[in-house]
Amino acid sequence: MKLQNDLLIRTARGERVERPPVWLMRQAGRVLPQYRALRAKLSGFKELVETPQLAAEVTVQPIDEWEVDAAIIFSDILVIPEAMGLTYEMVEKRGPIFPQTIRSRADIEGLLTDDDAAAQLQYVYDALDATKKVLDGRVPLIGFAGAPWTILAYMVEGSGSKTFSRAKHFLYSEPELAHLLLDKITRATTGYLLNKIRHGADLIQLFDSWAGILSPAQYGEFAVPYLHRITAAIATATNTPVTLFAKNAWFALDQLAATDCNVIGLDWNTEPDFARSRVGDKVLQGNLDPCQLYADHEQIVRATGKMIEAFNGRHIVNLGHGLYPDMEVEKVRTFVNTVKNFRYTQK
Amino acid sequence: MKLQNDLLIRTARGERVERPPVWLMRQAGRVLPQYRALRAKLSGFKELVETPQLAAEVTVQPIDEWEVDAAIIFSDILVIPEAMGLTYEMVEKRGPIFPQTIRSRADIEGLLTDDDAAAQLQYVYDALDATKKVLDGRVPLIGFAGAPWTILAYMVEGSGSKTFSRAKHFLYSEPELAHLLLDKITRATTGYLLNKIRHGADLIQLFDSWAGILSPAQYGEFAVPYLHRITAAIATATNTPVTLFAKNAWFALDQLAATDCNVIGLDWNTEPDFARSRVGDKVLQGNLDPCQLYADHEQIVRATGKMIEAFNGRHIVNLGHGLYPDMEVEKVRTFVNTVKNFRYTQK
User: What are the chain A neighbours of B214 within 8 Å (beta carbons)?
Assistant: First the structure.
């Protein structure tokens, strides 16, 4: 089906566009009353993720509410470890917990990978099918996965962490096992993302949420090679653009740019000029400080305009991180509308 | 009293030295069995901080154990908000909690500042006196405080946080009140640090632990001007060197270098070459990934040597963050001894 609004895709491919597209990380979620109403009827977060019709419904809510330029499938990066054999629980106000974690070679050898893992996630593919039907070509649908290092971090640590010191202990003390695990995660993730593309994902984003926990040397050894493999596999098999968002990995921007990705996401610490000097002509995505949406409407308009001018093209507008639950629907609308009313001056 | 080992001070002043000095953030603490034994007899962390003889005892433990080149007074950055009128509790495994937080102009106007605040901290000055006596000139004693933005973050947020979104909300929605509070924190902190110097602190380190939570624009507005004021006040009144350690503030290194500090601390994400290109001839401190100490002894020796070579002078060796509680005493010893055995080649 032809997209009625393909601004995101044209921008990701590097075409010259009239204005930057805009969407928000965590745009489907606790900021929206209609999301909270639906969520209150369910047993928990995972029921929502695993029920295709409901996942589709919340995926489309921000399109109806703010008319952003893209939908992103409502799901979680932790479906991959679960498909490989490590189930997780989502504990309210605490985050994900893995009752079992990876400790040994035997633990890793017992995990599923490749199509065996990807085939466990039929509910995600069904959610994509359902969403495409509801969207009816209005905007592109973004599919996503966690980057292999971030997935390893959860599988070894067993939960979120300020330091991820268990996961890093594993990299420093068992580098060979770490690579064995990263290889299996990479193969499962690649199969999963290619399936998502077959089920209608128009762009793929990889989230390397814990990139900034690693030293540059470790990021180069344990993260970047696997990003190369996934982006190359997608570029070989499809023409679907790929975005890498490696939070706090400012030190690795040049290495990210050397992969087959199309777009590089930026957190709010990284200034556009600095990023541009390191990524060549890759498209950039980001990067307003999410907390800027706590300011008044006038300041949001000013800061958003200033950001767009600073990027000056080859740019997808987003925040530098996801929306926080206590942000206001109307402040988000001001942000989105500021972008939608912007026009690049012709050079 | 003349210092027997003044390597840290000579290095901080920019003198040419035979090898870099070495100490570790959180060197007094849970890594040491002798610390845990003493701590187990007490009611809690605050009893240790507030009892000068005990604080002196644990301050000196790492000097006896590893013969590092400096002691750092055992204390907490949150003694300043407490001296200003906001008490905190230290909750095991959870961190600090403030029962009352700053919400309004009246809250700020009720706080003590200047010498009235600094005078509340006699137990810290007594701890310095006691430590100097025990140290007997073996190594310099480092005094420290939180940087004003980091202290504001705790006073508004009320606890640690992944996002510090309440504190940032305050900056975005009440910038004038934020500056009023930062001014009072700065004045209290300046008085406190000058008192510490009078009681024998040979070098001062400011910890801006939550620097990386702010955007570059906000860091420039709400953090840097107050670092200028504190470093200028110390430079005017004393010849005691000052170190700024602004964690994850790689984007502001040039602004930190423009203050009257002598040394800039680096986290483990920031490569020596990158830092050097931004700080001119300031001395640098850091920055081995703390988790490198989970590797085997041989790898620790290699990584430490590589780091010293990369900095190549004007360098104080430390980790890029504090020691974690599960690190081994013998691994720390390997790190320290690698530095102590190093000699710069004469050029």
Answer: 289
pLDDT at residue B346 tops 80: no
In tens, the pLDDT along B261-312 reads: 999 999 999 999 999 999 999 999 999 999 999 999 999 999 999 999 999 9
For this structure, is B30 an active site residue?
yes
Name the pLDDT band for B19 (thresholds 50, 70, 90): very high
- Say if B165 is an interface residue toward chain A (CB within 8 Å): yes
Say if CB A85 and CB A110 are below 8 A apart.
Answer: yes
Per-residue pLDDT band for A1 (boundaries 50, 70, 90) equals: confident
Distance CA A82, CA B321 (A): 33
| Best to test chain B binding among A208, A251, A269, A300 (most B CBs inside 10 Å) | A269
Question: Which tokens hold the place of A44?
Answer: 């928990």
Task: Single out the catalytic residue among B154, B192, B219, B226.
Answer: B154
Is residue B93 over pLDDT 90? Answer: no
Q: How far apart are CA B241 and CA B13, in angstroms?
A: 7
Whole-angstrom Cα distance, residue A312 to residue B170? Answer: 30
How does DSSP assign A92-137, residue by residue? TTTEEE-SS---SHHHHHTS--HHHHHGGGHHHHHHHHHHHHHHTT
User: Are A138 and A65 a contacting pair, CB within 8 Å?
Assistant: no
Residue A306's H or E segment, with its range, is helix A297-311
How long is chain B? 347
Would you give the end-to-end CA distance of chain A in angstroms? 33
Distance CA A253, CA A75 (A): 27
Residues 242-301 of B with CB under 8 A from A: 248, 250-251, 268-271, 274, 289-292, 294-296, 299
What residues of chain A lie within 8 A of the CB of B251, using their CB?
A: 250, 269-271, 274
Instruction: Flag if B216 and A271 touch (Cβ within 8 Å).
Output: yes
B302 tagged catalytic: no
What residues of A are in contact with residue B171 (Cβ under 8 Å)? 291
Domains of chain A: 7-340 (3.20.20.210)
Q: Quick one: CA dihedral B320, B335, B22, B272, positive or negative?
A: negative
Q: What pLDDT was estimated at residue A326? A: 96
Q: What is this structure's pTM?
A: 0.97
Residue B347 has pLDDT above 90, yes or no: no
Task: Determine the average pLDDT of the residues in A63-71.
Answer: 98
Q: Is the pLDDT of residue B338 over 70?
A: yes
Q: Are B62 and B24 in contact (CB under 8 A)?
A: yes
ipTM for the whole predicted complex goes beyond 0.85: yes
Cα–Cα distance measured from residue B173 to residue B184, given in angstroms and rounded to the nearest whole number? 19
* Average pLDDT estimate for A183-198: 98
Angle in degrees, CA A233, A126, A55, rounded to 5? 105
- What is the C-alpha separation between B322 and B344, in angstroms, rounded? 26
Token pair recorded at residue B110: 């009720």
**Does the beta-carbon distance from B172 to A248 stay under 8 Å?**
no
Average pLDDT over residues A242-247: 98
DSSP per-residue codes, B250-287: GGGHHHHHTSS-SEEE--TTS-HHHHHHHHTT-EEEEE
